[in-house]
Amino acid sequence: MEAGIFYVLVGSVAVAAFARSRGWPAPLLVTVVALAVSFLPFVPDIDIDGHLLLSLVLPPLLYSAALDVSFVGFKRSLPQIRRLGIWLVLITALAVGFVAWWIFPALTLPGALLLGAIVAPPDAVSAAAIGRRLGLPRRIMTVLSGESLINDATSLTLYRVFAAILAGATVSVWEGIGQFLLAVAIGVGIGLVFGIVLHQLRMRISDAVVIGTFGLLAPFGAYAIAEHLLGSGVLAVVAMGLYVGYNSPRTDYTTRQQEKPLWLSADLLLESFVFAYIGLQFPRVLRDLGSESVGHILLLSGAVLLVVLIVRPLYIYPTSAWANFQDRRRLARVDRGIQSGEFDERRKQSRRWRQYSTDELRSQIVRERMAGLQLTWKDSAVISWAGMRGVVTLAIAVAAADLATLDTEASHAIVVVAFIVTVGTLLLQGLTLPLLIRGLGIASDADEKEDEEALAEVRAKSREAGKEFLAEKRREWEAKYGEVDLSVFDAFTKRMTRVEKDTDEAQKVEDAASRPSYDDLVALTKGWLQVRREILLAERDAGNLDEEVMRELIAAMDAEELALDTRGVTRQPGRA
């Protein structure tokens, strides 16, 4: 068993590495290769408990994904994310459940609804990988990533409710809603506590290795405690990841540089293993079926796959059109308020709006209320077809097979349907999604234009803040050293007028002036870097700069600071 898992890990990572080198979607290739390998006679069966698979794989994958999600974008797109992550999962579960009960009555209605809850949540790993490679607009990527962060919680809550009904418990609709709200409250609360504690540790401990280790352990702790308290472990991990990721730029740069490659490697390892496991398990599941029920269950699987594919666009298009209509009505109310002078009074009375002129106020209101909410029919087409199932569907299905309340035929049917839906959506939607994106001509050109405008504003503010910082430091140096060569300030001033790049002002000035110490020069450079970071954070918090752009700029500053510290180490006595 242990040797088999090791071989699966090594083989899946090797296939994923090959796919990445060719620019192909790694999850799809890993699944296809695993399917082919699974039919070889010498390949052993690998059976992992579904609950164990969920507990080991889901927390780190969710946490890593939440770290990379823009919290500002997540908050702006929350109406869409909520529609997909909660209501679409519920509608899909009900539609699949009633169709499955009609085709396969032996499941019973609670068992069929349990099957619906299992296959309802999409896994955005493949969709996100394809979207990033093809340059999908940020608004689409935010919706897909946000949906994948919360739909698992909805699915697992529905799974608990239907499993309890199967066990003989009487659960009303209101009790189900109460369980869901309680799971949300407990999960988010536990996640925020873990997030706050982990962030404080990151702020106070300078050892990046220790902090990285805490970061690896925290998702498992948050998930386990939330589940033990009947909360949502998924939402606990997501809340912790969003909090830590949002505050990450405030921590030491060594922490960010340590955790980024760490989580990228963990993601590659876990995702490769899970998709390989999906492919390897399929033939074994088919062998477990009785020969008299194979045709009936395959018919059920095809029907459920069809329902899963159809329900998503049938839900997304009407709800998106209604949301766009409501947004236009809100915008019309803003226009009427400006024309009637209503917002002039509000602007004068509100400390928040007082800084804006009437036109600027309108622009700010529209930005806050509507940014990221408007999706075109092309955007909806991509989101509708990005419904591939993955690790959660597989793991819950394996766990459901162990339920004592299900007979053998029903448990085998649930597992087979879950595998066919997972593999079918991965291959059908995953292979055709790039063609759809290219055919619709969806690209992130608008994002690039907005980023350029935002960067121009940030650079202007950074220059002004930099001038104030340098003027203050210059006065401090003059008071400390008297008449000295202060050409370092001229070098920094010149640098602020051109494109930012890594130069060695500190080393240049150390050669030209003997009085200021090297530590003074390094502190000056680091102080200027910190001023720029604070400007970026302020612009991010105000909604003027996208979080992904901010992270790229901060990563460049981290590299500058690392170069400074590396030079400092090489200057120590005894170093070459």
Q: What does the secondary structure layout of this molecule look like, with pairings?
A:
Layout lengths: L1 H21 L3 H13 L11 H19 L2 H6 L1 H26 L5 H11 L4 H11 L3 H29 L6 H32 L3 H21 L4 H15 L5 H35 L6 H47 L1 H8 L8 H13 L6 H9 L5 H10 L7 H33 L4 H37 L5 H9 L9 H8 L5 H24 L5 H24 L6
Overall description:
- This protein has two domains: 2-321 and 372-443, Na+/H+ antiporter like fold, CATH 1.20.1530; 448-570, no CATH class.
- Helices cover 80% and strands 0% of the residues.
- The protein has helices at residues 2-22, 26-38, 50-68, 71-76, 78-103, 109-119, 124-134, 138-166, 173-204, 208-228, 233-247, 253-287, 294-340, 342-349, 358-370, 377-385, 391-400, 408-440, 445-481, 487-495, 505-512, 518-541, 547-570.
- Helix 10 runs antiparallel to helix 11 (233-247), helix 13 packs antiparallel against helix 15 and helix 17 runs antiparallel to helix 18.
- The chain is globular and about 95 Å long.
